[in-house]
Amino acid sequence: MTLKRIFYALGGLALLFGLWGFYDRFVNGHENAAYGSYVVWGLWVAMYLFFVGIAAGAFMFATLDYLFEIPLFKGTGKVALWGAFITLGAGLASIGLDLGHMERIWKVYLQPNPLSVMAQMVWGYTIFGLIILASLWLAIRQPKHMAVKPLMIVGLFLAVFLSGGVGALLGVNAGRTYWHVGLLPAQFPVFSLASGAALMMVIVGLFGPTDDERRPTQLWVLGLLTVVLALVKVYFLWADFSQSLYGGIPQNVQAVNEVMFGQYWWAFWILQIGFGTILPIIVLVQPKLAKHNGWAGWMGVLVLVGFAVARANIVFPALTVPELEALRTAFTGPHLSFEYFPSLVEWAVTLGIVGGSTILFLLGTDRLPLFGKTSEVTK
Among the residues of the chain, which ranges form H helices? Predict the structure, then answer.
């Protein structure tokens, strides 16, 4: 397939560029990253939030096949699980490279603080990853095994819990009032489901079996769900911004202005709202276009890009606004700034992760029986 070769080529180029970024990260540490003592989280943390959200959403869609046994999505469970596995790995790689001492991760397992939300997330994602692997292995080898449904139930619970946990991890940070909103933990499971729907549109639309007569209907349903969830996303965005602006807290007002009219305005209005929300809604509400493999698949790509930017617009503004205005001039020097835009090394590492993940996903679709035979799934 020509399209798949193009994706292989783009993934390979991204991975080659990323190899330089990986080298710089392991040799020079965080020296060439744009974040520092004030802006402590950057692009890699935003991509962690993005990728693990997709993983949770993809697992939710796998349950439509193996737990709820919905006929329309029969045969899509394996590729959804594979997508969940790859994106979870991408998310953990992103956050792992952000750590100052990656070699100390073992302490979370052997010396955990059970009351720490971060420790709970580490243990949760470890168990979630093992459940994805076990579910995928059984789905390929023994799809009727008695353990499949229990694994799906536990995995679904973890997918929802971990999605909300990410929001809670930010929301409990009272020092960053931009995150300290009550709706944040509730938003992330919705965002995960929307990300999963977008990923499935990409998979079914661009890489799905061409002889499956259910394909247009699958894309139509996924498109409608994506439109509904996109509107819910817009509502949450309005609620968050309204709470921040009308609440009158200076840091919140400044953070919202930073997103809408400051240094990140182009990412918000053009990528997140324009290409990531409005354009997909316009296309996907039209049945003829929503059922078209190419249109639906590429709209899924745009929705995912919009969600990636949305994650950045959650992380960056909260950190680029100082808790005390005097901190802007109190100390100066390398990595002592409230201005943040990802450095070349950060972009290189992120593109490397995206490229490597793309290649691994495509290799799985080529080498593993991830799509059910049409004669079997349409019975």
Answer: 2-28, 43-66, 77-98, 106-110, 117-141, 148-171, 184-202, 215-247, 250-260, 265-266, 279-284, 287-290, 293-320, 327-330, 344-367, 374-377
Quick count: other Cβ atoms within 10 Å of Cβ 331? 10
Give the pTM.
0.94
- The per-residue pLDDT for 373 is 61
Cα-flanking dihedrals φ and ψ of residue 300, to 5°? -60, -40
* Confidence class for position 341, pLDDT limits 50, 70, 90: very high
**Interval 88-120: pLDDT, tens:** 999 999 999 998 888 888 888 888 888 887 888
Which CATH number applies to 34-342?
A: 1.20.1630.10
- The answer to whether the CB of 356 falls within 8 A of the CB of 350 is no
Residue ranges of domains in the chain: 34-342
CA-based nearest residue to 198, from 220, 224, 226, 221: 226
What Rg do the C-alpha atoms of the chain give, in angstroms?
A: 21
Which conformational region is residue 140 in: left (phi greater than 0), alpha (psi within -120 to 50 degrees), or beta? alpha
Say if residue 128's pLDDT is above 60: yes
Are 267 and 298 in contact, with CB atoms under 8 Å apart?
Answer: no
Contact of 80 with 152, CB cutoff 8 Å: no
Provide the token pair at 223.
């498109």
